[in-house]
Each structure stands twice: as C-alpha cells, then as structure tokens.
Design brief:
Radius of gyration: 21 Å
CATH superfamily of the largest domain: ATP-grasp fold, B domain
Number of strands: 23
Shape: globular
Distance between the termini: 47 Å
Largest sheet: 6 strands, antiparallel
CATH architecture of the largest domain: 2-Layer Sandwich
Structural class: alpha+beta
CATH class of the largest domain: Alpha Beta
Number of domains: 4
Helix content: 25-40%
Number of helices: 14
Strand content: 25-35%
C-alpha cells in the first residue's frame, strides 16, 4: 500500500513511525512532515506550504495513494474527508459535520445536552456585554472557551471576575494570540481528575484504545496556562474497566446517537477529554476528532497490533471483528518546548544531543526544521521524548534521562509527568 499522512507534529511522527512497521505498507508520503518523520523507514516528505484540499487530492491521485491518514484537526473540520470521498479516495477520519464536535464547542455542548451526557453547566454568548453580565453573577473559578479551533490554547480558567471580563472582550476583538472566535462558551469549573479516553468509532461500533492521561498546564503541579499538552502517559488507573464501560455506555454511545439524529455518521478516532469526579463519575470537558497529542506518542508506543488493520477496519465498518494487542509495559512522554510557549517564543535554536540513544525510548519530532544536517527549533512544542518501561516509574525515569540528553537555548519541560499516578495522589486513591 501507498500511504499519505497529513501533518507535521509529534502526533503525525508517532503515526508515521507506527505505519512504517506495517508489512502491508510499501511507501509513506507525508505532507508537510518534519525532519524526524523524514528519517523513518519507507518515508518521503513533501514540504508543501499551505496546501489546499484540492492539492491533497491531486497528490493522492498522482501518487496512487491507497489510504490517506489525517493527523491534525483543521483539515478534518475543513471537510477534507468529504472531498476525498467525492473523488473515490480512501481516507481515515470523520466528515466535516462530524468533526464539528471539535470545531465548535457550542455545537459540542448542544450534542451533549441533547444526549443527556454529563458535562459542566454552561452558556454560550455572541457578544461581550451579555457574557460580562453573566460573569458578574457567576461563582469562581470560571471556565471560558473560545468556540473554534485554537490548538489546545482556547480554554481559560480564571478566578478573578475583572480578568475574566477583560478576557471576554479580548476574545471577541481578536486580541488573544492564536484565538479568533465569534462565540464563546462560559461554563462551571469541574473538580476531579482529568483523563483522555480515545476510541475508534465506526457508526455504532466503538473500540477504546489504551487509556492515557495528558498534562495540559505549562508548569509543575498543573499550574500556569493551558497548552497543547506538556506530557502524557499510558495506561492510567483513572480509567479502569468499569469506568471505560461507563464512558462508552453513558458518553460515547449517546453522543453518536445524537449525531445520527442529525444525519451524521461518525467514523475515525474520537477523543473524549474527561473529568472524573470524587465519585468516579466521568464528565465530558471536550471532544476531539483525532488522536491526542502528546497522548498519541505514549499510546502508539504501546501498540503491538498493525495500525493499518485498525484504520481499515474502521473505514470498512468491521470494528466488531478487530482485536487490538497492547504492550503490558507503561509509556511516558515528556514534551520539550520553547521558552515562552504557549505565548510568543523564539525559533531557530540549534538542538544538540539527538544522536544519543537509550533502549526503549523514542524521540518524536514536533516543531523542528533541518539546515545543513543540523536540527533547529521551529515551534512551541519541539520534541516528545517517549519511553517504555516495565511500569510507569521506570518509563518516566527513562523518558527524563533521554530528555536531559537533549539541549538547546531556552528548552523548557515539566518535571512531574506521571507523578500523581506513581505517588497515588488522585482524589479517590
């Protein structure tokens, strides 16, 4: 098979790495890719800048692509799946209408409410005056979400009403870096433990992937601003079998049913960001319509089955016949980021130490570029250092050992990825 993978981040590097291990795959083309992706087996990278959906279609037709895999959310929300299918091309991912679960937080809340799915109490606003008046009457802390895509940076938790009101005005006037929206959602703050529940969905069939936990906040102890994710690990005891069953029964299935009522069939990865309260009740914080990043790195590190079989089973509506094998080992991913992230950060810092190797580790590239055989920073999140270990403590130690071998001016990271799990400090432990 000839495979086309769309994207350039750590998630896409992990997907490419796993796809390259399939005996069914002959050639892998990646647009636009990154220097780490380019070094994987069977891979050719095409650094096409700002390609349109038609550009992707033309490439797939000209290169006899048998299957296209979409990594990031933006092309899905823009309707790339719909256009590929119109042209008779096989592609993995949800349609434009289905991807609105991630593309519009307002639409997501409508689906959750209609389906009776547990989520935070909330209200949507299209103007700052109404939103500010609502904030004045609301208890703190308060959660404010930009409606559209914001690369994981469109959610704000505030415990000051003046700051919340200013943020609302800034969101509506386009003064928040990387966020542009005409609708905001304001919701109650939920207490509990966050976890990621990612599954394969094909119409009515649902198969969960290995459990995982992301670390959204920039700083140790879950402090600081939200990011795209500073690290992850898999599995997590936050999602045991009983909670997984509850999530499928009370969250995923009702969501799919509500989409069906609107004539929308879902196919692809579906990622429910969960808050699990002290009584172990899962609430939906948000939906994503693709693999999480950095969860993908940790999850795919543990995957022993052929990922191509998984994707084709989803597309062909044969998930009920699929059995996925996972390593009994744990995986831990530590994100190395540029100083200033998730705000303004400098690029073009030379990265040293990538040549080192530790058995059972993998460095996934996210925001990098190459020049004269050297690798430089080219993004906020630069690398995702991932390790397998007989347990999480071992995986964590190996990941940090490898992460500490990598250097550039301004490198930042959290130092506590997986600590709560290792130290058994969850609220219901």
């Amino acid at each position: 098979m000839n495979i086309l993978i769309i994207g350039s981040g750590g998630r896409e590097h992990a997907i490419t790495w796993k796809v390259s291990q399939s005996e069914k795959v002959k050639n892998i083309f990646v647009i636009p890719g990154n220097p780490g992706i380019e070094k994987e087996n069977k891979v050719q990278v095409f650094d096409i800048q700002d390609p349109s959906i038609q550009d992707y279609i033309n490439f797939a037709q000209e290169n006899n692509i048998d299957l296209t895999i979409v990594g990031p959310e933006a092309p899905l929300v823009d309707g790339i799946v719909d256009e590929f299918e119109k042209n008779g091309l096989l592609i993995f991912g949800p349609t434009k209408n289905a991807a609105q679960l991630e593309g519009s937080k307002n639409f997501c809340k409508e689906i959750l409410n209609s389906g009776g799915v547990l989520t935070a109490e909330h209200q949507s606003f299209t103007d700052s005056i109404s939103a500010v008046n609502y904030i004045k009457q609301h208890s703190l802390p308060i959660v404010i979400k930009a409606d559209g895509l914001a690369a994981g940076k469109g959610v704000f938790i505030l415990d000051n009403k003046e700051e919340a009101s200013k943020l609302v005005n800034d969101l509506f006037t386009g003064n928040v870096d990387g966020v542009n929206c005409s609708i905001i959602v304001i919701e109650d703050f939920l207490k509990g433990e966050e976890a990621s529940f990612i599954c394969l969905v094909s119409n009515d069939s649902v198969i969960p992937l290995a459990s995982s936990k992301d670390h959204k906040k920039l700083n140790n102890g879950d402090r600081g601003p939200n990011t795209g994710g500073m690290g992850a690990y898999s599995p997590t005891k936050l999602i045991d079998d009983s909670i997984a069953d509850k999530v499928i029964k009370d969250i995923i299935k009702p969501t799919l049913n509500e989409l069906k009522k609107r004539g929308i069939n879902y196919s692809g990865f579906l990622y429910a960001g969960l808050m699990i309260d002290e009584n172990k009740n899962p609430f939906v914080l948000e939906y994503n319509c693709r693999l999480g990043d950095p969860e993908a790195q940790a999850i795919l590190m543990r995957l022993e089955s052929d990922i191509i079989d998984m994707l084709l089973a989803t597309i062909n509506n044969k998930l009920d016949d699929l059995n996925i094998e996972w390593s009994k080992f744990s995986a831990c991913t530590v994100v190395l980021a540029s100083q200033g992230y998730p705000g303004k950060y400098e690029k073009n810092k030379k990265i040293d130490g990538l040549e080192h190797e530790i058995s059972g580790t993998k460095v996934f590239h996210a925001g990098t570029k190459s020049k004269n055989e050297d690798i430089f920073t080219n993004g906020g999140r630069v690398l995702g250092v991932t390790a397998l270990g007989v347990n999480l403590q071992v995986a964590q130690a190996k990941a940090y050992d490898r992460a500490n071998q990598v250097h550039w001016e301004g490198k930042i990271k959290r130092h506590d990825i997986g600590d709560k799990e290792i130290k058994n400090k969850f609220i219901f432990s």
